[in-house]
Amino acid sequence: QVQLVQSGAEVKKPGSSVTVSCQASGGSLSSYAINWVRQAPGEGLEWMGGIIPVFDTPKYAQKFQDRVTITTDESANTAHMELNSLRSEDTAVYYCATARSAYGPTVSWGQGTLVTVSS
Amino acid sequence: DIQLTQSPSFLSASVGDRVTITCRASQGISSYLAWYQQKPGKAPKLLIYAASTLQSGVPSRFSGSGSGTDFTLTISSLQPEDFATYYCQQLNSYPPTFGGGTKVEIK
């Protein structure tokens, strides 16, 4: 299974942007569906979007459609998730996670990146 | 979007107890359901996929069943390391939604 290591914690001001990175080892990210999932403090898991092999373009949850961009850098075997127009409600742990197929379960998870949005 | 309703949301049990968690989908999802375990401060861990297939390395006391709209996760004999929060996820259609979670605590 691929191992995923995410970038470190971030503190951001409301209205700004954040990019979280996810570097893979032990396999090529291009072989997997790459998902981003977030978890607000004390809350459940929320799928944000992903790069899914069967779709031509990244797939995003409607809630984040206008604010999130997910990309991959194949040369660096790294995925990135950029979230714009941050607000306090975006304070959460953000996870990258990979699946073997578009409709398969997420087997490998990164360690999570805490993003704190505060003025 | 497909909604997943887990019950109970909180469960208090003792070591050795048999525990059952249910997950109901707002529409049929065949067997495209996965179960995850999450401990505080850690990423979720896949336990079961395709409703009833045990992920490699997961103890056999965990089992899953169901298809269509109703699913269950059963822990046959609860162990100390099983106290955690459990989530179901549907993989039938995008977005792949999660249930609200079931927190299993020590009685």
Essential attributes:
heterodimer; A: 119 residues; mainly beta; 7-stranded mixed sheet; 4-stranded antiparallel sheet; 0% helix; globular; B: 107 residues; 6-stranded mixed sheet
In short:
The complex is a heterodimer of chains A (119) and B (107). Chain A has 119 residues and is mostly beta strands. Chain A is built from no helices and eleven strands.
Could you walk me through the main structural features you see in this protein, from its secondary elements to its overall organization?
The complex is a heterodimer of chains A (119) and B (107). In chain A, 0% of the residues lie in helices and 50% in strands. With 119 residues, chain A is mainly beta. In chain A, strands 2, 4, 5, 6, 9, 10 and 11 form a seven-stranded mixed beta sheet that branches. The radius of gyration of chain A is 13 Å and the shape is globular. Chain B is globular and about 35 Å long. Chain B has a six-stranded mixed beta sheet, with no helix packed on it. Chain B has 107 residues and is mainly β. The model of chain B has no long low-confidence stretch (mean pLDDT 97). At the A-B interface, β10 of A face β4 and β5 of B.
Strand-pairing-aware structural class of chain B:
mainly beta
Structural class of chain A: mainly beta
Output the radius of gyration of chain A.
13 Å
What's the helix-strand series of chain A? EEEEEEEEEEE
Number of DSSP strand runs of chain A:
11
Helix content of chain B: under 10%
**Number of continuous helical runs of chain A:** 0
Binned strand content of chain A: over 45%
Cα end-to-end separation of chain B: 36 Å
